[in-house]
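Re: your question about Apoptotic protease-activating factor 1

S., sorry for the slow reply, the queue was backed up all week. Below is exactly what I fed in.
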Amino acid sequence: MALEEGARCRLLLVRHQLEQDIKPSYLMDHMISDGVITVDEEERIRTYSTRRDQAAALLELLLRKDNRAYISFYNALVKETYEDLASLLQRDLPRISTKTRNSTSDVPSLNVQTVLSEGGVPQRPVVFVSRTELVNRVRDNLYRLLKEPGWITIFGMAGSGKSVLAAEAVRDHGLIEDCFPGGVHWLSIGQVDKPDLLVKIQSLCFRLEQSLDSQSLHRPPNSLDEAKERLRFLMLRKYPKSLLILDDIWDSAVLKAFDIHCRILLTTRNRTLTDSVSGAKYEVEVESGLDDNKSLEILALYTNTKLQGLPEEARSIVRECKGSPLVVSLIGALLREKPNRWRYYLIQLQQKQFKRIRKSSSYDYDALDQAMAASLEVLPEEHQELYKDFTVIEKDVKIPAKVLSVLWDLEPEEVEDILEEFVNKSLLFVDNHSKTNLYYLHDLQLDFLVEQNRTELESLHAKVVRQYQQHYRDGPPTSRDEESLYWFRYLTYHMAKANLSQELYSLMFSLDWVSIKAEILGPAHLINDYVEFATILDKENSDVRSQFQDFLSMNGHQLEQRPFPDVVQLALSQPQTSEVYRQALQKAQGRASSGKLYFDWLNKSSVESLPHLVIHPQQGSIIYSACFSHDGTKVASCGTSKNIKVFRSTSGEKLTEIADQDDEVLCCAFSPDDRLIATCSSDRKVKVWNVERARVMRVFQEEHEEQVNHCQFTNTTRRLLLATCSNDKCLNVKLWNLNKPTSQNTIFGHFEPVNHCCFSPDDKYLSTSSNDGTVKLFEVSTANEWKTINVRSMFAEGDEDVLVKCSTWTADSKRVICAARNAVLVFDIETSDMLMEINTSRLSMVQYCHACPTSNLLAIASSNYAVELWDLEANKKKADCSGHLSWVQRVQFSPNGSQLLSCSYDQTVRLWETEKVHTSSAICLKRDSDVVFSDKDIIVSAPDNCNRLQVREGLMGSMLFQSEEKPSRIRCTCLCRQPPVVALGREDGTVQAAGLRARNALRMVGNRIQRLLASNTKSVLAVGLCSGRVQVLELPSGKLLASLLGHTKTVVHCQFSQNGQRLITSSEDTTLRVWWWQSGECKVLQGHKEQVKCFSLLPSPPTSSRLLSWSFDGTVKVWDMENGEMLQDMEAHQGAVLACHVSPDGHFFATASADKTAKLWLCESWQFVQALSGHQGCVRSCRFSWDSRRLATGDDNGEIRIWSVEGGSLLKICARNGKDGMDSLHGGWVTDLQFSPDDSLLVSTGGYIKWWDVEKGEALQTFYPKGSALKKIHVSSDFSTFVTIDNIGILYILQRVM
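Result:
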């Protein structure tokens, strides 16, 4: 609708005066709020250089607008105190029709504005941002007053925007027309005494009467009672359908003066005020503040700036304002006057200088601190003192009433009453969504308390500690309720803030505290404490602080397991010089006296270069990718769990979890400023997330047709792009601009899946690695191919396909490094020449590689569970980082190069300190070992991965013998007791036998050596070769005594008879042979259809000797060794026989099979006795007790069952309820079982070692190795010493603590 002619003429008539005086920028704020001009129109007006030109442009625009624009302009003049100019326009103000009014619900009509102005309702603030949800809640309650009078309470803390909300709620034509046609009347109250209250009511009555005829005017009421009656008469008789708004009510006594059975809306900080009056009551709580976007919008409007044009300080100011509409508006108004003071006001907020953030609006208090203080002054003095104690509560922390009961030394019921008062007065907030109510302060309230009580902070924190110590003088709490959780989380914080250093040392250097806090809260909180309070703790003893922190970091993944592990046992694996170990040993010795089992790892000092932090982020899920943030403080991980988790890199504490993924997440990457994370997944989706809020910011259109393998941001925000690559055959690499829903560029070049993409450090190039055997380099600015590096050509022709897994750039952007097969290749990008080739184990595949951004180091992840660290300058391996239990999928250096992370299919992320890994850490032992126990000593021999034979003395930890490095792999070793000799066999068939302190003969004996065995009675050595040849050598000379030909395939097991005259061997050729090795006579035992992995000599009468053999063919056979006759052939199982054991009394033998059963048999008659069913996995191990009355069986699910031999009944199931994160009862297959001599204990190996109470079937102790997959455990005769080697080559010599 066009502007009325009268209004147009009036505008033209006074145009010259308006152009001379008005400031258009101030007026346009109001007109934009009313919706009569747009931001673009405002921008066009601002392009004029002078104020007068801008005024002329604004008036020219008004002449093209409608009546609403004229009215808005008039109102803006009034609000900006141009009353003289507004009066020039007033006589020709146009009227807006009802039809027009109803069609513009967002902008109040002139009639509504008139009603509100006449009622004294405040205008909208100069800068206004709608809070639609809260406004609608108030309006919904106002409609409830249509049927009957009542009270609506808007309550909230100081500065939460209650008054603006009340005024906005009634700024609605439909609401006034339907519910309050008699008008809306506003009365500001505040903190008043009775005389002031009387004056306010007199003023209201006068205003109401003045609107009536002149005969309705009366003298002012002289008392509150008279005033109340006068107001009752006016509201019920003269204005029966009107609304009375009482703003800023403090006292219930004041409210009683308005208890006149009318419709009232009130704002207050005390929600309980209406308890003292009658009528229907409704509440609207204003708890949550403005979100960041709303707050930024306010600052933009105040400063006449577009959102995108706000300085970087704007977001920081918004965070400091904590969502408070008051504080944002105060800052905005100040910036409007001083637009160059963004940094200054940010600093004032950060330093809590509330006095300097002074009045710049119609708010009742000159500064923010006065508004806060006013809320406290209404409390009784004793409650003001109690409220002061909230000063020490950390931000965003919710506290249970029981903690305050301890702090205030009051009964819980008294505490709850006091807290209710605080809540009702909006001095405290309550979260009643948990089992117990939790109380908390708004950040601004807490900031105010800290500023007010700054000189008392130390004493207030000390009070908390003293009250805790008094209440828990008999020991810390052990429950898991909210009270206990608070003390475990924040007791150390209070001690540190109270400067109670000795108390902090005593607590944090205590293994008891570590144990109970780790069990209740997990290890991450503890690690954070040692990091946060390191400065204080290091004054006492920096070594001890490091020892406790390292213990938690390296065992954190174990401390997250349930059932909770024994912390003392874990601590016994710490170095002997550690305070953690000293305390653990002392506790273990004390508890051992009452029968508790503990085991000391005697040779732990030989272990080096283990990760300094192990995180288990995706419980039960494989991890595909992990990455550092660019500031190095965070680690993100993703995998099959379909979510992303973000952790602190110092402690493993979870910071954020993003759980809105639709499929497995294959890769995640931080943006350069760490505010965003990009993810790509199997469902072809590419998403970008806000890290802090865990919300999706952008879901790109699904342009990839196959799974998206990798994503990476550019390294700087100068031109922020995201690169992705996929399994598509053609359009498989894309660049995305975060401001666009579709890709910015699709990069062509590869016609096979692309596994990885990587920006060069200078963001000039993008490298892509593909299954087509090439690495391509693309110019980022043009998306054009710059160069192709043919990696396939570096491998021999005719080999299988060359798949390039990934590529990485050196820090100078001059070399690109790629991984393919078991090699890593380094290329010069200018010439495409290969500069270096690094070959890893031929039995593994390189999964990933990453170049350090600050040094010449290169990290390589491989399928053999290893992480290798190479020095590119020296072309030399620096270390093998051992610890992962499955394929390593990803490695990445931290931005400063000090740390390296690796993630694996074993569900862990491990962090390594690059300066603390050593070349010696690359040395690990093979699991085929031999052990000799003597009275007070242990000797262990095993080959290492450097092809040297090592012989170690366990108790002393010294190296007794180490051979020189061999050119070929050592396959096996064995020890002989007397004389003390050791022998080894190599892949090339060489056997070396040597004394333990002197090297001896070396003899070439044929092909690869498969098995060595020393006779118990003679100084001879039997050697089984892969060629099928068996040789017997004299020890220690190495003289060949016999070469036994007969087997046609690899010899897999051999054993001397008790008198040493016969040698029994088994082979992959399915036969066994009994050799009279001195004469060369041989008996061939034929009958098995598959290889014979093992056999056992049966107790025999003097006249005969019998042999029991079992095979993968499912059969068990009994042989007479004297004549080679098969005495019995038993079809024992439907699957392969995996283990067999003969009872010590010689009456029974047991078999265990892949068919998930075990069986009992009689030795004399060879009859089947009993099938032992119930296992859910392959039964891999079995063992009789020494009294032959029980049989223990173990399966691949980690379950152990104990059976009665006599009746075959099941006695106990061990570890039924103890599954760990690897979804196994034992961390893996149960591979070995051994009973103690008195049959009361059972030790088992699998993923770890467990000791059991045989009668109860309960686990007594667990030892967690650094690796996994233990094959066999060697046990001393007194059951006090245990020796094994794990899959990463670490030797464990464990001795029971007595």
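The chain has a mean pLDDT of 84. Residues 920 and 1251 are 32 Å apart (CA to CA).

Happy to talk it through on Thursday.
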